[in-house]
Write a structure and sequence with these properties.
By secondary structure, the chain is of the alpha+beta class. The chain has helices spanning 2-36, 52-57, 121-130, 194-203, 255-260; strands at residues 42-43, 64-72, 82-86, 92-93, 97-104, 110-112, 134-146, 149-154, 157-158, 164-166, 170-176, 183-185, 207-213, 222-228, 236-238, 242-249. A hairpin with a 2-residue loop joins strand 8 (149-154) and strand 9 (157-158).
Amino acid sequence: MLEILKSKKLYIHLAILFSLGIIILLTVVYSLSSFTRHGKTVSVPDFRGYYYNELQDQAEFDKFRFVIIDSIYDADKEKGSIASQDPKPESLVKENRTIYLTVIAMTPEMVQMPNLIDLSKRNAISILETFGLKVSKLGFVENIAKDAVIEQLYRGEEIEPGVEIIKGSGIELVLGLGAQKALIQVPLLIGLTKQQAINELHLASLNIGEEHFEDGDDTNTVRIYRQSPSYSEEATVKMGQSIELYYKSDENFDFEQYLKTL
């Protein structure tokens, strides 16, 4: 009889322990689900154009946290406003997600003009990019040092090394033509973005000419579908010549199929 009672107590204790284990497990799972908001996502609004203080004041944005990680200067946009965000608008994220913001700087960032004289074109372009500057145009003059920098110009005037200018400014490089005035083969630019085309043209000692945007001028969605002079294996132009470019949106034009016909 005693053994039977002991067995019953043992089973009761085991049942109690099992029940407690189930309760603890369910509590932990529920707590983790509530903490991580498992399965619950919200769409990220478009914060571009807002000011950081506005985000703090609007209750509809309480589901997010905001951190400013960078600033850029853009004379065409409101100073202090948000320029870009990560995650992007309409991304699905969990509540309380941190949104990383880039804002428009109040004042332009300044950099010192490097000394490019006597450098090769390729080295000069690379150094300009390192300083946050860019090539606005390539000019050529009679000089035996082919593709070497003879002058560096800013807004049409010679600029001395060490002078502070706005980061992102365009610099005109005046290069030597060399002993023989070589002709340059026209590069194939079809299917390239605007920035890709600029890079290709400058490396080929050519310039970007008139631009025609047939589907809007958003350089993020357009690519080149026609160029003048046209590309061919025999087509050549003088160093420094400009290439006229025509753009179409890659959302409305099948560039892969078009390139197969060239």
